[in-house]
Give the backbone structure.
Amino acid sequence: MGTLMPEIHEKSAHTELARVLASEVRKFVDEMIIPNESRLAQDGNASFCLQSELAEKARYAGLWGLFYPLSHGGRIASLEDYLIVAEQEGRSEFSPAILGSHSALDAHMLLKFGTDEIRQNFLQPMVAGKAIPSYGMTEPEHGGSFPALITTSAYLSNGNWTINGRKWFVGNTDRATFVTVLARTAEENTAPGKALSMIVVPADSPGFRVERQITVMDRSLGQGEISFSEVRVPSHNLLGTRGSGIDLMSWRLGMGRQLRSMNWVGLAQRCFDLMGARINSDRGRSARLPEKQLVRQHVAKAYQAIASARALIRVAARGVDARRSNDIEINIAKIAASQALCIASDSAVQLYGAEGISDLTPLSGIYRIARTSRILDGSDESLISSVGRRLINFYKEEDVYYFD
């Protein structure tokens, strides 16, 4: 069933380079990453060493950091082109770290908003594979990540920022070398839109501490809680301008949702392929799975969800490439990608039965990611509420909404 989905063959929509890279990435994932998934899923130094070894092979093959800025080793500039590559990277939950795509967002952030010192001290080592980023936004004292509730603070004195506070559900805390932290840099009565800033903090700074690792559904995914106690960093570690934290956060969320959605669709396609293999296997035929109406319903619904998500992501990606404000398209694409992954993974688990919920297949790990996708980068409920409000407000001024 792998050839049914129009993953790499959309010649009218993507450049020849993107199609070639998508094919090469798929081959690398199939041959180098998927056979090692059980080893990569284990905690400890052995899995980290294996990941580093595979990352070096990806770098040697010219497949590492494909969506980094072109000025820093990237090979694809357009989000729409990157879609078919990101899908192939996303077919294993371990690929983004091995192929460097997990840090592409930070690479663009540091280049676009960073000072010369930030680019030299953090961006250059990161694109060389010698530094690992993380991002601290959500705080344990408050639900979600509402900007008005951020209490982590930073004050400027004698050319240094001094940071105090706590963040949790911070990615890569088990190995990050620096964290971009969202902190309050203004007085309490300052408008939220001008009160927050982003500051880059080395993980070896005095006063910086990883408080604990946080397992997700009983598995370590690199999430953790960190604290800042009188952490001092140079003033030039400020991203953007003082008080621009909300704007930077919005930019990061929009781009991050796009990149993550593309990977999720890749995982959904993996589940779809596993469904097809199961149905047409000897065991599947002996159970007459191809003949069952409900099995066909599972397949049809998964296909519809994946195809719809891919189309919505492409629309949103075109808007980003055109530098057009398109929060509605980005948020709807994120919701659709999450739903596609949830539907495809749930259907695949159901068709595999007991094997699907065990460690005998990759489905249990994918299912875990599918459930978190409804929360990461904005919960479904908050995004639906935001999109619904904006659409209702649109009709206060206009009579017709023209879809792109």
Q: What stands out?
A: Residues 199 and 308 are 38 Å apart (CA to CA). The chain is about 50% helix and 15% strand. The first strand starts at residue 133 and ends at 136. The two ends are 30 Å apart (CA to CA).
